[in-house]
Amino acid sequence: MNSYQLRVQQRSATSSRACRKSAVRVLATAAPATTSNPAPPPHPLDGFKEHSGLKYLPEAARTRALDKKANKFEKVKVEKCGSRAWTDVFELSHLLKEGNTKWEDMNLDDIDIRMKWAGLFHRGKRTPGKFMMRLKVPNGELDAKQLRFLASAIRPYGADGCADITTRANIQLRGVTLPDADSIIKGLWEVGLTSFQSGMDSVRNLTGNPIAGVDPHELIDTRPLLRDMESMLFNDGKGREEFANLPRKLNICISSTRDDFPHTHINDVGFEAVRRPDGEVVFNVVVGGYFSIKRNIMSIPLGCSVTQSQLLPFTEALLRVFRDHGPRGDRQQTRLMWLVEAVGVDKFRELLAEYMGGAELAPPVHVHHEQPWERRDILGVHPQKQAGLNWVGACVPSGRMHAADFDEIAAVAEKYGDGTVRITCEENVIFVNVPDEKLPAMLAEPLFQRFKVNPGLLLRGLVACTGNQFCGFGLAETKARAVKVVEALEEQLELPRAVRIHFTGCPNSCGQAQVGDIGLMGAPAKLDGKAVEGYKIFLGGKIGENPELAKEFAQGIPALESVLVPKLKEILINEFGAKEKVVAA
Ligand code: SRM
Ligand code: SF4
Question: Region labeled Disordered — which residues (predicted)?
Answer without folding.
Answer: 30-49
